[in-house]
Inverse folding.
């Protein structure tokens, strides 16, 4: 394992996020390789992307200036199905971040039980502060290159940070024009053109279904629990909605400029207000504190300082913004406040040191590749509906999602126990996700 990890660092020394994701998985796989030494060559291969595409994305801003961004698609692993994973538009996007996300996606997609390989893509384009027509021109230019690399049976992207319904619509329109066909090459589409009910809600809802299952193993529940949520985008919004559905209370939310604390709780009416602020008016979370009484707003500190959100006394913490947003110090603050469970809505929001703090203090900890898999699982359901040319009801899709999350939880829980690490969902998820992909890669001759 050490030899594999060292070779990953030697090949790409400037990719810290990718190293972090690889190290976490390799750390879990020792007992598997002992039981299945035939899988060692798989480990050597699985850390290398099958294909990486990088391209120029030129577009014209509203003032008539040419702007040039970088586009990427990482096609990480197609052993168990077509590549599947989101597109991220954020200034921080680079190969390291996309490779970490694509690598995580391989195990996550395997855990859903659906036939999906792993991929991820995006651009260093920042949709914030751009007009709708600038975003449209950017998306069209991005797809002008990406379209030749994707397909319903090849690679099916979805949304992620900075890519929501608006962007997916523009991307889909351009694909359709270029390829001259109407097929489900993107998920997260609008309802009127092949989208699935519950897809927008799925990551956040699935996260809370997973947290519910995890809490139930110790006889606890979301009902009556006080929860902190970070972020105020897609995952954060619908995680908060499901916490409210299940009788919990949400007291924090954030964006990249700061966070709000509402001790009275963000109820449905206030959450609707946040959804309108973020999805339609595209404003800042600080406006919440101006609009509602009894709320404090705190500006973010420059990293790596703690921004204070995780110092709020809660029972359950749901980080739903971005990677590495809970560090060791913040994990200790949560433990000092006797947090019961931490479930990752975002991808890798807890640093390895933070995870260690939770696990060594008996906090229930759910890694994102298990607890946020509801989004990609429902994307899989969208692909099925597109292929069948059918559309299922809200209740049908939600029931599928709930069942998938229950199964992912059981799979991670049982696998951790089987390999001698009871309660360790990180190991359980990594091993369970790995075994299926490893078996398929071996059967296919490790190409
Ligand atoms: P959105 O763009 O809808 O929301 C992201 C939220 O996080 C926003 O509130 C944003 O603030 C905040 N944020 C982004 N970057 C930073 C940063 N560097 N520091 C502090 N806050 C930040 O994205 P999603 O909700 O879709 O994604 C959130 C996380 O969930 C990501 O890690 C993503 O990979 C993961 N995820 C998403 C899935 C999905 O289905 N959408 C599926 C599985 C995982 P601001 O408004 O200021 O930009």
């Amino acid at each position: 394992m050490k030899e594999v990890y060292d070779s990953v660092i030697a090949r790409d020394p400037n990719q810290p996020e990718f190293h972090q994701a690889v190290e976490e998985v390799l750390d879990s796989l020792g007992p598997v390789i002992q039981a299945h030494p035939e899988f060692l060559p798989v480990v050597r291969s699985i850390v290398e992307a099958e294909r990486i595409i990088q391209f120029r994305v030129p577009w014209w801003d509203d003032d008539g200036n040419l702007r040039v961004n970088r586009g990427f698609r990482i096609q990480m692993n197609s052993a168990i199905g077509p590549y599947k994973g989101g597109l991220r538009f954020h200034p921080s996007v680079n190969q390291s971040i996309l490779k970490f996300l694509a690598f995580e996606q391989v195990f996550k997609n395997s855990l859903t039980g659906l036939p999906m390989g792993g991929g991820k893509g995006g651009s260093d384009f920042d949709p914030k502060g751009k007009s709708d027509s600038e975003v449209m021109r950017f998306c069209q230019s991005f797809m002008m290159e990406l379209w030749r690399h994707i397909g319903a049976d090849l690679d099916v992207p979805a949304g992620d940070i900075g890519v929501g319904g608006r962007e997916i619509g523009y991307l889909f329109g351009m694909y359709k024009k270029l390829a001259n066909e109407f097929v489900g090459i993107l998920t997260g589409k609008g309802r009127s053109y092949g989208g699935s009910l519950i897809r927008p809600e799925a990551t956040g809802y699935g996260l809370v279904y997973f947290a519910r299952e995890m809490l139930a193993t110790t006889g606890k529940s979301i009902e009556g629990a006080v929860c902190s949520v970070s972020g105020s985008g897609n995952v954060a919004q619908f995680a908060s909605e499901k916490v409210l559905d299940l009788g919990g209370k949400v007291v924090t939310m954030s964006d990249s400029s700061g966070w709000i604390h509402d001790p009275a709780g963000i109820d449905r009416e206030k959450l609707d207000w946040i959804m309108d602020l973020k999805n339609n008016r595209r404003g800042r979370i600080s406006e919440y504190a101006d609009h509602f009484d009894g709320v404090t707003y705190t500006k973010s500190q420059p990293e790596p300082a703690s921004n204070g959100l995780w110092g709020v006394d809660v029972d359950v913490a749901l980080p739903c913004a971005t990677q590495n947003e809970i560090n060791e110090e913040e994990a200790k603050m949560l433990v000092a406040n006797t947090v019961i469970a931490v479930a990752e809505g975002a991808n890798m929001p807890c640093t390895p040191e933070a995870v260690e703090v939770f696990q060594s203090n008996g906090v229930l900890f759910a890694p994102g590749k298990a607890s946020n898999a509801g989004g990609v699982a429902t994307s899989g359901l969208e692909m099925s509906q597109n292929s069948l040319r059918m559309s299922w009801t809200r209740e049908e899709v939600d029931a599928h999602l709930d069942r998938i999350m229950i199964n992912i939880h059981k799979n991670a829980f049982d696998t951790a126990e089987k390999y001698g690490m009871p309660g360790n969902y990180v190991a359980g998820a990594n091993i369970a996700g790995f075994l299926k992909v490893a078996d398929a890669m071996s059967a296919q001759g490790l190409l």
